[in-house]
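Morning!

This is the sequence you dropped in the shared folder:
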Amino acid sequence: MTEEMKTLKQWIDGSDNIVFFGGAGVSTESGIPDFRSVDGLYSQKYQYPPETIVSHTFLTKKTEDFFEFYKEKMVAPALKAAPNAAHKKLAEWEALGKLKAVITQNIDGLHQAAGSKEVLELHGTVMKNYCTRCGKTYDVDYVMNSAGVPKCECGGLVRPDVVLYEEGLDMEVMEKAVEYIRNADVLIIGGTSLVVYPAAGLIQYYRGNKLVLVNLSETSQDRHADLVIHEKIGQVFSAL
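The structure's back. C-alpha coordinates below.
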Protein backbone atom coordinates (compact mmCIF):
# COMPACT_ATOMS: atom_id res chain seq x y z
CA MET A 1 0.00 0.00 0.00
CA THR A 2 1.40 3.42 -0.97
CA GLU A 3 1.97 6.19 1.58
CA GLU A 4 -0.96 8.13 0.08
CA MET A 5 -3.23 5.12 0.51
CA LYS A 6 -2.08 4.63 4.09
CA THR A 7 -2.85 8.28 4.84
CA LEU A 8 -6.27 8.03 3.22
CA LYS A 9 -7.08 4.87 5.20
CA GLN A 10 -5.98 6.56 8.42
CA TRP A 11 -8.18 9.61 7.75
CA ILE A 12 -11.20 7.45 6.91
CA ASP A 13 -10.71 5.17 9.92
CA GLY A 14 -10.49 8.21 12.18
CA SER A 15 -13.54 10.10 10.90
CA ASP A 16 -17.31 9.89 11.24
CA ASN A 17 -17.91 13.02 9.16
CA ILE A 18 -16.84 12.16 5.61
CA VAL A 19 -18.47 13.73 2.56
CA PHE A 20 -17.92 12.40 -0.95
CA PHE A 21 -18.24 14.52 -4.09
CA GLY A 22 -18.09 12.55 -7.32
CA GLY A 23 -18.29 12.87 -11.08
CA ALA A 24 -18.42 10.75 -14.24
CA GLY A 25 -15.26 8.79 -13.36
CA VAL A 26 -17.17 7.04 -10.58
CA SER A 27 -19.54 5.53 -13.15
CA THR A 28 -17.18 4.88 -16.08
CA GLU A 29 -15.91 1.82 -14.19
CA SER A 30 -19.49 0.52 -14.34
CA GLY A 31 -19.43 0.90 -18.12
CA ILE A 32 -21.22 4.23 -18.41
CA PRO A 33 -19.51 6.57 -20.91
CA ASP A 34 -18.59 10.02 -19.67
CA PHE A 35 -18.89 13.13 -21.79
CA ARG A 36 -15.37 14.46 -22.11
CA SER A 37 -12.93 11.56 -22.45
CA VAL A 38 -11.57 10.16 -25.73
CA ASP A 39 -14.41 7.62 -25.92
CA GLY A 40 -16.93 9.95 -24.31
CA LEU A 41 -20.18 11.16 -25.83
CA TYR A 42 -18.64 14.46 -26.97
CA SER A 43 -16.14 12.54 -29.12
CA GLN A 44 -18.78 10.49 -30.93
CA LYS A 45 -20.32 11.63 -34.18
CA TYR A 46 -23.99 12.46 -34.32
CA GLN A 47 -26.07 14.66 -36.57
CA TYR A 48 -25.91 17.26 -33.79
CA PRO A 49 -23.28 17.67 -31.06
CA PRO A 50 -24.34 15.90 -27.82
CA GLU A 51 -24.20 19.17 -25.85
CA THR A 52 -26.75 20.58 -28.31
CA ILE A 53 -28.98 17.50 -28.04
CA VAL A 54 -29.10 17.50 -24.23
CA SER A 55 -30.19 21.15 -24.07
CA HIS A 56 -33.52 22.68 -23.11
CA THR A 57 -33.90 24.22 -26.57
CA PHE A 58 -33.40 20.86 -28.31
CA LEU A 59 -35.90 19.18 -25.99
CA THR A 60 -38.55 21.74 -26.92
CA LYS A 61 -37.72 22.16 -30.63
CA LYS A 62 -36.66 18.64 -31.68
CA THR A 63 -38.36 16.55 -29.03
CA GLU A 64 -38.33 13.23 -30.92
CA ASP A 65 -34.62 13.47 -31.70
CA PHE A 66 -33.94 14.39 -28.08
CA PHE A 67 -35.69 11.31 -26.72
CA GLU A 68 -34.09 8.99 -29.27
CA PHE A 69 -30.62 10.10 -28.12
CA TYR A 70 -31.60 10.33 -24.46
CA LYS A 71 -33.02 6.82 -24.27
CA GLU A 72 -30.22 5.16 -26.25
CA LYS A 73 -27.19 7.01 -24.91
CA MET A 74 -28.13 8.14 -21.42
CA VAL A 75 -30.82 5.87 -19.98
CA ALA A 76 -30.03 2.47 -21.53
CA PRO A 77 -26.39 2.43 -20.28
CA ALA A 78 -27.55 3.41 -16.77
CA LEU A 79 -30.13 0.61 -16.68
CA LYS A 80 -27.55 -1.97 -17.82
CA ALA A 81 -24.89 -0.86 -15.34
CA ALA A 82 -24.24 -2.24 -11.87
CA PRO A 83 -22.64 -0.40 -8.94
CA ASN A 84 -18.85 -0.83 -8.73
CA ALA A 85 -16.44 -0.96 -5.79
CA ALA A 86 -16.58 2.81 -5.26
CA HIS A 87 -20.40 2.93 -5.05
CA LYS A 88 -20.43 -0.06 -2.70
CA LYS A 89 -17.72 1.27 -0.39
CA LEU A 90 -19.50 4.62 -0.01
CA ALA A 91 -22.75 2.85 0.90
CA GLU A 92 -20.82 0.74 3.41
CA TRP A 93 -19.27 3.83 5.05
CA GLU A 94 -22.69 5.46 5.30
CA ALA A 95 -24.14 2.33 6.94
CA LEU A 96 -21.27 2.42 9.45
CA GLY A 97 -22.10 6.04 10.30
CA LYS A 98 -18.85 7.37 8.84
CA LEU A 99 -20.12 9.01 5.65
CA LYS A 100 -22.67 11.82 5.90
CA ALA A 101 -23.55 12.32 2.22
CA VAL A 102 -22.73 11.53 -1.39
CA ILE A 103 -22.87 14.57 -3.68
CA THR A 104 -22.85 13.50 -7.31
CA GLN A 105 -22.83 15.02 -10.78
CA ASN A 106 -24.00 11.68 -12.19
CA ILE A 107 -27.57 10.97 -13.22
CA ASP A 108 -27.49 7.16 -13.33
CA GLY A 109 -28.87 6.23 -9.89
CA LEU A 110 -26.00 3.83 -9.15
CA HIS A 111 -25.29 5.25 -5.68
CA GLN A 112 -28.85 4.43 -4.61
CA ALA A 113 -28.60 1.01 -6.30
CA ALA A 114 -25.55 0.33 -4.12
CA GLY A 115 -27.51 1.24 -0.99
CA SER A 116 -26.57 4.87 -0.36
CA LYS A 117 -29.41 6.83 1.28
CA GLU A 118 -28.26 10.45 1.46
CA VAL A 119 -27.47 11.18 -2.20
CA LEU A 120 -27.58 14.73 -3.52
CA GLU A 121 -27.92 14.60 -7.31
CA LEU A 122 -26.73 17.97 -8.60
CA HIS A 123 -27.77 17.23 -12.18
CA GLY A 124 -30.91 15.21 -11.43
CA THR A 125 -31.54 11.58 -12.34
CA VAL A 126 -32.70 9.49 -15.31
CA MET A 127 -34.73 7.41 -12.86
CA LYS A 128 -37.38 10.12 -12.43
CA ASN A 129 -39.52 12.01 -14.92
CA TYR A 130 -42.38 14.47 -14.66
CA CYS A 131 -45.14 16.03 -16.75
CA THR A 132 -44.35 19.59 -17.77
CA ARG A 133 -48.04 20.43 -17.69
CA CYS A 134 -49.51 18.87 -14.52
CA GLY A 135 -46.37 17.79 -12.64
CA LYS A 136 -47.31 14.10 -12.33
CA THR A 137 -44.22 11.92 -11.86
CA TYR A 138 -43.28 8.85 -13.89
CA ASP A 139 -40.56 6.23 -13.46
CA VAL A 140 -37.80 5.35 -15.91
CA ASP A 141 -39.69 2.35 -17.34
CA TYR A 142 -42.56 4.57 -18.43
CA VAL A 143 -40.24 6.67 -20.56
CA MET A 144 -38.31 3.71 -21.96
CA ASN A 145 -41.53 1.87 -22.89
CA SER A 146 -43.11 4.91 -24.55
CA ALA A 147 -42.99 4.88 -28.32
CA GLY A 148 -41.35 8.12 -29.40
CA VAL A 149 -42.14 11.06 -27.12
CA PRO A 150 -43.53 10.10 -23.69
CA LYS A 151 -46.83 11.79 -22.91
CA CYS A 152 -48.74 12.19 -19.66
CA GLU A 153 -52.36 11.07 -19.30
CA CYS A 154 -53.21 14.81 -19.28
CA GLY A 155 -51.55 15.13 -22.71
CA GLY A 156 -48.50 17.02 -21.45
CA LEU A 157 -44.88 16.17 -22.24
CA VAL A 158 -43.18 13.83 -19.77
CA ARG A 159 -39.57 14.97 -19.49
CA PRO A 160 -36.58 13.65 -17.52
CA ASP A 161 -35.85 15.09 -14.10
CA VAL A 162 -32.36 15.90 -15.37
CA VAL A 163 -30.69 19.30 -15.55
CA LEU A 164 -30.16 20.00 -19.25
CA TYR A 165 -27.86 22.59 -20.79
CA GLU A 166 -29.39 26.09 -20.45
CA GLU A 167 -31.14 25.04 -17.23
CA GLY A 168 -30.17 26.04 -13.70
CA LEU A 169 -29.34 23.62 -10.90
CA ASP A 170 -31.81 23.03 -8.09
CA MET A 171 -30.79 25.63 -5.49
CA GLU A 172 -32.17 23.58 -2.60
CA VAL A 173 -29.89 20.66 -3.54
CA MET A 174 -26.94 23.06 -3.97
CA GLU A 175 -27.52 24.62 -0.55
CA LYS A 176 -27.63 21.19 1.11
CA ALA A 177 -24.42 20.22 -0.69
CA VAL A 178 -22.70 23.42 0.48
CA GLU A 179 -23.81 22.70 4.06
CA TYR A 180 -22.44 19.14 4.02
CA ILE A 181 -19.13 20.25 2.48
CA ARG A 182 -18.74 23.20 4.85
CA ASN A 183 -19.15 20.94 7.90
CA ALA A 184 -17.15 17.94 6.64
CA ASP A 185 -14.09 16.66 8.43
CA VAL A 186 -12.82 14.66 5.40
CA LEU A 187 -13.89 15.70 1.89
CA ILE A 188 -13.13 13.11 -0.81
CA ILE A 189 -13.51 14.23 -4.42
CA GLY A 190 -13.42 11.42 -6.93
CA GLY A 191 -13.80 10.78 -10.64
CA THR A 192 -14.25 14.38 -11.69
CA SER A 193 -12.05 16.75 -13.68
CA LEU A 194 -13.63 19.65 -11.75
CA VAL A 195 -14.37 21.66 -14.89
CA VAL A 196 -18.19 21.71 -14.76
CA TYR A 197 -19.46 24.77 -12.91
CA PRO A 198 -21.23 25.62 -10.68
CA ALA A 199 -20.79 22.12 -9.24
CA ALA A 200 -16.97 22.29 -9.35
CA GLY A 201 -17.06 25.51 -7.32
CA LEU A 202 -18.52 23.66 -4.35
CA ILE A 203 -15.14 22.63 -3.00
CA GLN A 204 -14.31 26.23 -2.09
CA TYR A 205 -16.76 25.85 0.82
CA TYR A 206 -14.64 23.15 2.48
CA ARG A 207 -12.97 24.46 5.62
CA GLY A 208 -11.06 21.39 6.79
CA ASN A 209 -7.54 20.12 6.17
CA LYS A 210 -8.28 16.68 4.74
CA LEU A 211 -9.20 17.40 1.13
CA VAL A 212 -8.61 14.25 -0.93
CA LEU A 213 -8.61 14.16 -4.75
CA VAL A 214 -8.85 10.76 -6.43
CA ASN A 215 -8.85 11.04 -10.21
CA LEU A 216 -7.12 9.24 -13.06
CA SER A 217 -5.75 12.47 -14.54
CA GLU A 218 -4.58 15.73 -12.99
CA THR A 219 -7.14 18.39 -12.11
CA SER A 220 -6.86 22.14 -11.72
CA GLN A 221 -7.39 21.69 -7.99
CA ASP A 222 -4.58 19.19 -7.33
CA ARG A 223 -2.34 21.87 -5.85
CA HIS A 224 -5.03 22.84 -3.31
CA ALA A 225 -5.60 19.27 -2.08
CA ASP A 226 -4.08 17.75 1.05
CA LEU A 227 -3.85 14.35 -0.61
CA VAL A 228 -3.85 13.47 -4.33
CA ILE A 229 -4.16 9.96 -5.78
CA HIS A 230 -4.06 9.49 -9.56
CA GLU A 231 -5.73 6.10 -9.87
CA LYS A 232 -9.12 4.70 -10.82
CA ILE A 233 -11.44 5.36 -7.93
CA GLY A 234 -12.85 1.83 -7.87
CA GLN A 235 -9.35 0.41 -7.47
CA VAL A 236 -8.52 2.86 -4.69
CA PHE A 237 -11.73 2.20 -2.76
CA SER A 238 -11.57 -1.57 -3.12
CA ALA A 239 -8.07 -1.47 -1.58
CA LEU A 240 -9.33 0.33 1.54
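Headline: Strands lie at 18-22, 99-104, 119-121, 124-131, 137-139, 158-162, 186-190, 211-214, 227-229.

More detail when I'm at my desk.
O.
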